[in-house]
User: Fold this.
Amino acid sequence: MSFSQAWDAGFRAVLIYIGVVFAWLGLVERYFGSQSVSVVVMNVVAVALALAFFLRARSRAVAERARAEAEVRALMEEAV
Amino acid sequence: MLQRPTSFATEVLRYGLIVLVLAFIVFPILWMVVTSFKPPQDVMVSPPRFLFTPTLDNYVHAIWEKNFLFYIKNTLFISVTSTVLVVVAGALAAYSFARYNVGDGHILFFILSTKMFPAIAVILPYFLIFRDTGKTAVGRFLGVGLDQPGALIISYTMFNLPFAIWLLVSFFQDIPRELEHSARLDGLSRMKVLRKVVFPLAAPGIAVTGVFTLIFCWNEFLFAYILTRKTASTITVGVESFFTLQGILWGPVAAAATISVLPMMAFVLLMQRYMVRGLTFGAVRG
Assistant:
C-alpha cells in the first residue's frame, strides 16, 4: 500500500468514525440507560468500523499492486 | 520488486515529513469537529480536554435556534447558479481564445488582470451598483439588489470567470484541431462540433473548473458579508452570526462550520477521481 493510498483510506476512515458518532448520538444513544456506557460502546463501534474500512482498503491496494506487478513481469518476460 | 531500492532511514524521513505537513493541514479540521461535539464547559478549558461526553447540543442550537439550514439553502442556490453561469460562459470564451486567438492574447491578459486586485478594492463600487439597481423595477424583478441572491450570483460569476477561462483555455488547447476538422468534413455545424466533439473531450477539465468554482463560491465571505443582510445570507455569514455581543458561542460556531464543510467535503470526495483525471488531462503535450 503506497503512502498516498494509506492517507486517503485513513482520511475516509476518520470520516467514517465521525459519521458513526453523528448517527449514534442522534439515533442510538437514547436507547442506553447510562450515557457513559453509550459513549464507550459508540467509540468501540466507530473504531471497529473505521479500522475494518482501512484494512479492507489495504487488502484491496495490496492485491491491486500484486496484480499490476504480475502483469508487468509477464510483459517483461514476453519482451525477453 | 520493480521499485528503486531506497534506504530505510530515507523512507522514514520522507514519510515523516509528509505526515507532518498533512497533520498540519488536517489538525484544524479535526479540532473543529471535536469542538462541535463538546459540551459548553469543555470547549475553552486549558489545557484542552480530549476526553469528554460528546453531545449534539451544539448542532441542535445551530440548526434549530439559529436556523442554519436557511443559510445552506441560500448558499446552495447561489453557488450552483453561479457555477453553472461561470462554466457555460467560461467554456465558450475559453474555446474562442484557444481556437481563434481572439484579441491576439491581449484580451486574455486583460481578463486575468481583473484577478490582480483584491476583492475589497471592488466591494464599494459593487455595493453602490447593487444598491441603485435594486431600486429599479428591473432590478427588483431579477432579484439584483442588496440582500438579494442575484447580487451575489453576479458578483461570484464576475469574480470567478477569469479563473475559469484561464483554466479552460489550456484544456481546449490540448484537444487536436484535426478532430474538429474531421467533424466539420462530416457535415457538423460549428455548434454541433462544439457540443458533440469538443465539450465531451474537455469534460474532465470542465468538471475540475466547476468543482473549483463551486468551492470558491461556497466559501466566499467578503461579498456575502457586505452585499447581504438577512434574506440572502450565506453560510459564511451564518457562522459569523454566532459572534454575539455577549460573547462567541464556540460550540455552535464549530458545529455550524462542520455543517458547512461536510457537503463540500462529500462532494469533493465523490468527484476526486474526476478531479485527478482533469488535473492531469493534457499534462503530456505532443
Q: What stands out?
A: Chain A has one domain: 3-79.
